[in-house]
Amino acid sequence: MTLLIIFSCIVLLIVLISLLKINAFLAFLIVSVIAGLSLGISAGQVTTEIQIGIGKMFGDLSIIVVCGAMLGKLTADSGAAQRIASGMMKVFGPKYIIWALVVTGFIIGIPLFYNVGFVLVMPLIFSVSYRFNFPPVYIGVPMLASLSVTHGFLPPHPSPVGLIRALHADIGTTMLYGIIVAIPTVIIAGPIFAKTLRNMKSTSIKTFESIDLPEDKLPSLFNSIFSALLPVILIAITTLLLRFVPADHVAMPLLQFFGDPAVVMILSLFVATFTLGIAQQIDIKKIMNTYGESVKDIAMLLLIMSGAGALKQILQTTGADKEIGSMLEGLPAHPLFVAWTIASIIRVCVGSATVAGLTAANIVEPFVVAGVDPNLLVLAVGAGSLMFSHVNDGGFWLFKEYFNLGIKDTIKSWSMMETIVAIVGIMAVMILNIIIH
């Protein structure tokens, strides 16, 4: 009976979001109340459990996600992302222009939220297309594949961070595995797949063209890359030190403090405020306005993630998560593949990668107790959450409108690219699992 109730609640969540167009946060609240009452929690206790779940998830994620949004916004507004793009073009040259776009997309994709990164790179894609006489879609897909992979696999993006918290993974290890998985995924979904799109015609729309900052106003290439990747650098360093320094060493408490993801993001933002802001003679008031604007962009995203935390709390309080675990353990498939499949189905139904990932995490969390590597489980769910973007996903329409394509060509290019990311991603995760374990 418990499993039937849970299944019905997941179906209801999908219906509310995809068919009735209910806001995802409200949908999570509605489903959490229904699930709690149906699973035997008293009416007076249901709201308490929901508040606890929202508080836990919000408390875990708010610092990381908000600081990540601020860093990403500053990277864009200061011209650092523009400098990285132009610098990579010079480093790789015309012969390897596709790879320049892939590397650029990967670097600026780490600090920038997907929609911001998407809008930011489009003028570059079309300018390269005109300059070297390449079809825009052929040029654009490799770069956008990089953005998509960083969005789905790597912290400090909201979905990976939420999955890491939900599945009790280690952020440093997950980031290391994520980069390993990302490399073949980007290559296959980007430059290799793009070769099939050389004849797809597309034209830019003047409305979407942005104005670049003058060269003398941009930070240096080193400063831009260093500031954008500082969270990755700090997490990598502290993760390595924590593994090699003895547990009883006098420096261990200090390492644990500086290795905390929230502290890493605060330090990274503090450094970037100086390197990309004050050092570039940007007024502190303008920097703070930039930070304020960035929070507006992710406020609803934080609420949606907190709503997923409410449903997770209901499942844990009622013991439903353990029943789910018992059921999934009996399936004739590897747990990582099962997790990927669940996330893929939810993604195709609801459109949102974040909602798909966090909903799937609530279902597959018992796998961690059963001995599945939580870091690989995060990546398996993350890969599934990117499966086949179509008309119910905002990214689909962004791609369609910016490249001025029809529905059919958008599916042949964008939707197929996202599908390849999901499939190659889970294949890489499974191979990595064999190597590690």
From TrEMBL:
It is a multi-pass membrane protein. Coiled coil: none annotated. The chain crosses the membrane at residues 28-46, 58-76, 96-125, 137-154, 174-194, 225-245, 257-278, 298-315, 335-364, 376-399, 419-436. It is found in: Cell membrane. InterPro entries: Glcn_transporter (IPR003474). Keywords: Cell membrane, Membrane, Transmembrane, Transmembrane helix, Transport. GO terms for molecular function: gluconate transmembrane transporter activity. It holds the Pfam family GntP_permease. Its main location: membrane. GO terms for cellular component: plasma membrane. Belongs to the GntP permease family. This is Gluconate transporter.
